[in-house]
Structures are given as structure tokens and as C-alpha cells.
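Researcher: We're teaching a course module on how sequence relates to structure. For the next exercise, students receive a sequence and then see the predicted structure as C-alpha cells, so they can try to spot secondary structure elements on their own. Here is the exercise chain.
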Amino acid sequence: MTKVKVLAGACGFTTMIDVIKLDRSKVEISVDSPCEMVQAFSHSLPSPLQWMKVFAKVKDSLVFEATHDNLKHSDCPVPVALIKAVMVEMGAMLPKDATIVFIKEDC
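Model: And here is the predicted structure for the students to work with:
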């Protein structure tokens, strides 16, 4: 199982994502979030999920289709975190943290 914790930023919501490999082509996902939009996003994904339909071109990814249909904020990091968790669970990516750091420079 691959577990991911997403601290979304200014909204203050923390989302937990669990991904379990079922076989060579399918995963089961679980998303726990206080955000109603993230809940709707996760419930709109098929279960089980074909992992190659997650890791696809942006316009073809089931994750980004569900993002378009359910999330109002395009900057939400949850969809990308879900894709990364699926990739790690399927052995296609190493479990390496991704970080966004804001640099405030004095003018």
C-alpha cells in the first residue's frame, strides 16, 4: 500500500490518499478529505482504477477529467498527489516527496 498526506496550502485542508495494487493493471484508491470538492472528485473516479488511464496525457487522464468535473480550484495539489501515489504503488516511480516552496525576496 502507498499512503500520501497532502497539505493543500491556503485552504488549510489535509487529504490522505491510500492506493493498493490489485493486479498488474488495477489499483484501488481511498481518499479521505474534509474538502467537499475533493470528496466529489474521488467518488467520481472508477473503482477499481486502471492505472494507465491515470498516468496518461493530461487531456486523457481520468484523474484530470474528474478534476475538471469536480474541483473549482485548478491549483489543488490533490490530483497530482493521487497520480504520484498510483505511480509509486505500481512501481513506476520512486517514493520521493514533491515540494512547492515560495521564496519571498525583499525588493
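Model: If you want an answer key for the exercise: Strands lie at 2-7, 14-21, 26-32, 49-50. The mean pLDDT is 93.
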